[in-house]
Amino acid sequence: xxxxxxGFYAKLHGLTDAPAGAIAAKPSSALVPLLGTxxxxxxxxxxxxxxxxxxxxxxxxxxxxxxCVRADGECMNNRYPSDSVLFVDxxxxxxxxxxxxxxxxDFQSIVRKYSRGASSxxxxxxxxxxxxxxxxxxxxxxxxxxxxxxxxxxxEKDVR
Length: 160
Known about the structure:
mainly beta
C-alpha cells in the first residue's frame, strides 16, 4: 500500500503507470452459467446447455447463485423478445407481477408472469398476442416448482 515500487509512494512519484490516487478498476461483467432453454408459451421439455454467458457484474453481485436460461417464444413479448437470455435469481421470493421460471415435475419449464391468490397460483402471459391463456394451479393439481425470479435479460447474440 505504501511501498516504493507499487504503493502510494510509487504512484505519487511517477514510478508506476497509474496516476496518484487511482482506484483499481472493477470488472464490468461476470460469467454465469447458461443452464439450458426454456419456453415462453407452453410448457416444454428443457433443453440442456453447459456454457457460460456474460452479464453485468452488478447483476451477478446483487444476485449470487443466479443463472441464465435461453428463452424462446412469444407469450412474454411485452417484456422479453424471443431468443432472450434471462438471468434468474433462485433465492428471490416471487411477488405479484414479476416474471418467474416455473417447472413441472417432469422437468418441463416455462416463463410467465406470477400472481398468487388465496388458494391458487396463476402464471399469465404478458403478450400483445391474445392466443395465450393463463395457467391456474390449485392445491390439488400437479405441483409446479418455482425455479426463480427473472431479474435481468439480454439478447442472445448481436443482431447487427
